[in-house]
Every structure is written in C-alpha cells, then in structure tokens.
Write a sequence for this structure.
C-alpha cells in the first residue's frame, strides 16, 4: 500500500485571521487521523499573510496535542534560518512530549524573500552549509558521549527521523548520500521530479535510519463529488499561483466560476506548468490520475496538499482521497 499523508500550509482565507486558519488546521489534523493518514506536516514560511505556520515547531506542538497516533512534523524547517542546536532542542522537546510521533523535514530554501531574510538576521550564504548543518542536527540526536561539551537537551539520544526536502537534484543527492527519506516538492516545482527520484534511488546509501530509499512526492489533490465541483474549488489554488507569478502576496481567495477571466494566456501556461501534479476531480478521476502517477513515480508515499477555501469542502476532499487510496490498495491486492 502507498501511504498517504497531509501537507498543510495552514492557508489564511480572505476575511479571516491567522487564528482562524490555525484552529481549522487542528480540526483538519483530527479529521485526517480518523481517516488513517500516516503523517501531517506543516511548513516554515515567513512574512506571508496567506500562510500561518511561520512558528513551525509551535504549530506542530499544538497539532500533536490535538491528535493521538498520527505522525506530526515539519515539511519543512528551513535549516539555514536556524542554528542546528536550536532545531535539535525544539524537535527533541517535541519528541519528548509526543514520543514516536515527530518528523523533522529539513530544507535549504529561505522560505521567504530577501528583505525578510535580513529581518531574520539570516546569512545569505548559509544555504551553502546545508549538508554540514543537517549532519550537525543528526549528531545532536545521537546519545551524548561522556564529557561532551555541547548537548541538545532534550534531544540527545532521541529517535527523531530526519527527512531531506527538495525541488532539485541537490536534495536528491544529499538524501541519497546520507541514507535519508526524501520528500520532493512537486506540488509547486514539478520539473525535476522524475530525474530527482531516479538519482535518489540510484545513489542511495543505507544508513542507520533507513536501509532502503523512501520517496514521497508532494501533490495537490482537490477532490469533490463531481469533476465540475472540484474544478471550481481548484480555482482558489490557481488564483494563489497567479498571485505568486505576479509577485503579490495575499490570503486564499474564494473560488470563482470562470478562472479564464482572471489571467492572461502566458500566466495560465506558467501556473499550469507549476501545477502539473495537481489532481482535480471526482473520486473516479482522482483514482485514475493518482494511480498513473504512483505507477510512474514508484512513490513509497504521497503527501497531498489541498488549499480549498471552504473548510467543509477541504475535509471532504481529504476523505475522498482516503477512500481512493483504500480502493487502489484493494485493487492492487486483488490483482
């Protein structure tokens, strides 16, 4: 069975507050746990009025406290924004409070713009040290040696799985070299997906954490009872990508009846390329398209995001995806 998981960007709707978005995410996490999802991740973004997960470790703590069994984690923490010791302490604390349930996905992008990087006191060259910083985080989770001068407390000796996140070949190569599971951001940067997965699998070196490769591509899944309803819900995400293309930031917009009125042909083409791995439609459509994607990528796990304006429709979308995944598993087992 291909596991299914949730990537929640904690979208803030137009007309609502960040607090509203966070409370909806807590409700969605409980809902996803009841549906059998494997893990629930949130991501670090800064100075974005439409995303409420900037304080990623704090949000993870609230989501973990609201659930009981599902893994909760970061997809991810942008490590160049932080000292490795601080991240080890934060996630060591989370693992101590919620043992066996915390994931730490690490990325090297800033998660923001140049001005905000300076506001965070981020060194613009810090990304060059990403491989070393990942290994430093891993070292802090090892059992402390006698006389060790610097320890992560909590953190030392705890089993916090580390993932590498990426949207290029760099992350694939690093994950393979370190023998770590790999999540690819194909939900917004699809171009290098197939090549990155190939490089990851070909170069993978078994490690203490993982004996075999584990690849988890990200996709968007906007599911509804009919194709037409799903396509309308999808316009909120299309409008968000249109804002990105135009260099504007804002909150998640309500769906529109005719997306073609909102963009120029070149904007439509660019957004459509970025959303290549957005699966939109009825249960039957999602089952067909997602099955083909899983076959093509040989994914071990799928991480789905669903920026849907209406909370009830968003919960329904994840319920449909869970049903589709169960059906695909049953069909494969019967074959």
């Amino acid at each position: 069975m291909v596991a299914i998981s949730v990537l929640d960007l904690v979208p803030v709707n137009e007309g609502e507050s960040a607090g509203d978005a966070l409370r909806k995410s807590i409700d969605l996490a409980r809902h996803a746990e009841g549906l059998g999802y494997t893990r629930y991740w949130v991501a670090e973004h800064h100075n974005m009025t439409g995303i409420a997960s900037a304080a990623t470790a704090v949000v993870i703590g609230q989501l973990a406290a609201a659930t009981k069994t599902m893994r909760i984690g970061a997809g991810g923490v942008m490590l160049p924004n932080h000292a490795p010791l601080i991240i080890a302490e934060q996630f060591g604390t989370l693992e101590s409070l919620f043992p066996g349930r915390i994931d730490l996905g690490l990325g090297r992008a800033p998660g923001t713009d140049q001005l905000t990087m300076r506001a965070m006191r981020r060194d613009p060259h810090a990304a060059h040290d990403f491989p070393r910083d990942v290994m430093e985080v891993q070292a802090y989770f090892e059992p402390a040696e006698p006389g060790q001068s610097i320890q992560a407390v909590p953190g030392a000796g705890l089993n916090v799985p580390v993932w590498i996140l990426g949207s290029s070949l760099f992350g694939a190569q690093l994950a393979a070299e370190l023998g770590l599971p790999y999540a690819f951001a194909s939900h917004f940067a699809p171009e290098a997906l197939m090549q990155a997965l190939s490089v990851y699998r070909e170069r993978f070196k078994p490690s203490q954490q993982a004996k075999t490769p584990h690849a988890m591509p990200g996709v968007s899944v906007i599911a509804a009872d009919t194709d037409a309803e799903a396509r309308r819900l999808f316009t909120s995400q299309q409008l968000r990508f249109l804002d990105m293309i135009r260099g504007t930031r804002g909150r998640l917009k309500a769906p529109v009846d005719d997306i073609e009125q909102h963009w120029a042909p070149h904007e439509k083409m660019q957004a459509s390329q970025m959303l290549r791995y957005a699966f939109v439609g009825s249960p039957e459509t999602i089952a067909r398209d997602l099955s083909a994607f899983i076959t093509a990528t040989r994914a071990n796990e799928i991480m789905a995001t669903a920026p849907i304006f209406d909370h009830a429709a968003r919960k329904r979308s994840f319920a449909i995806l869970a049903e589709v995944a169960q059906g695909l598993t049953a069909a494969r087992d019967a074959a």
Observations:
- The longest strand covers residues 215-223.
- DSSP finds eleven helices and nine strands in the chain.
